[in-house]
Write a structure and sequence with these properties.
Blueprint (H helix, E strand, L loop, with lengths): L4 E3 L5 E3 L2 E5 L6 H10 L5 E4 L6 H4 L1 H11 L2 E5 H7 L7 E3 L1 H10 L2 E4 L1
Parallel strand pairs: 3-4, 3-7, 4-5, 5-6
Antiparallel strand pairs: 1-2
Length: 111
């Protein structure tokens, strides 16, 4: 369960993080609600491919979602360069950083 804090035998809390990879600008309403409602504190959202355009075209909605869910937002620097855009929201990742983030996640979900 993402966002849940567990205590391991050493007594240190462990936060479970899921990486949600969003690759489309829009999904059907039901799927859009499903992925957004599945977010939990500590999860990360990575916008890739056409999903990157959410930062530009849905900035307010994305900001509200991040504040509501306590999640972090990332995008691929290569997608920003391909579109010729510099978003003001989210953190740019190189391809190597994307791989690192993917391996750091407890679960990867591609929507």
């Amino acid at each position: 369960m993402a966002g849940a804090v567990f205590t391991i035998p050493t007594g240190f809390p462990v936060l479970i993080m899921r990486l949600h990879q969003i690759n489309q600008l829009d999904y059907p309403v039901t799927l859009e609600k499903t992925w957004q409602n599945s977010l939990q504190t500590g999860d990360h959202i990575l916008l890739i491919e056409d999903g990157f355009l959410r930062i530009i075209q849905q900035t307010t909605a994305m900001q509200t979602l991040l504040e509501k869910t306590g999640t972090e937002l990332y995008y691929l620097q290569s997608d920003a360069q391909a579109y010729g855009l510099t978003p003001k929201l989210g953190i740019a990742l190189s391809d190597d950083e994307w791989v690192d983030l993917t391996f750091a996640a407890d679960a990867n979900i591609s929507w």
